[in-house]
Structures are given as structure tokens and as C-alpha cells.
Amino acid sequence: MSDQRRVLGALGERLAEQHLLAKGYRIRERNFRIREGEIDLIAEIGGTLVFVEVRARKGARMGTAIESLTPAKQRRLVALAEAYGQVRENLPEDQRIDVIALDLSAEGELLSVQHIEGAVWAE
Known about the structure:
single chain, 123 residues, alpha+beta, Trna Endonuclease, Chain: A, domain 1, 5-stranded mixed beta sheet, 2 helices, 41% strand
């Protein structure tokens, strides 16, 4: 992963976390990693455990942030959420996977924040 992508990812995660905190979420964990991948943020609100995938895009050349969420990534998120449940105890039964998509201008100005609750689900 390039340094630019890593910096953009970290910025996106910070902005997404601020968004969640402002909406009353409690952050349980950041960057949960296992061999199969990573969950950006794990939060809780009103007794619901929320796995959050953060997608950030700078400039429109590669499409919008939400367009970058491929079917393969969605399947991986479901598997990661299931894996999280196997390594952590006392989790709320109500769970969902949200996506926070952040679009930034080519200069890095935040243009939009899209929070899609329950954006990904197991088939």
C-alpha cells in the first residue's frame, strides 16, 4: 500500500470516528486485524454492535467512495464480522455492518459523508 493511500485511509478513519461519536456511538475497537483482513471501526449504539467499513476517495478520477465497495469486499466484511464474534466475548446479539463513505476533493477538502446503516449483510 502506498504512503498516500495509507494517509488517506487514516484520515478517513479519523473523520468516520468523529462522525460516529457525534451521532452518539461508542467506539469499542479500531483496526481489528486478522489474517483475512481488517475491520476499520467497531462501535456500539443502543445495544447494537456495529462493524464499520470506511471508504475514502480523493478526487473523482477513480469514482466515488461508495462505488469502491466491491462484492468481494462485502463478502470479506461478513466473514470478518463473524470471525470477530469468535474471538470476542459478551457481544450484543443485534449486529450490523455499516459503511461510511467519504469523498474528498483533489485538494483534500471533505465534500461528503455518507453513512449507510446495514449496508452489508450475509446472504
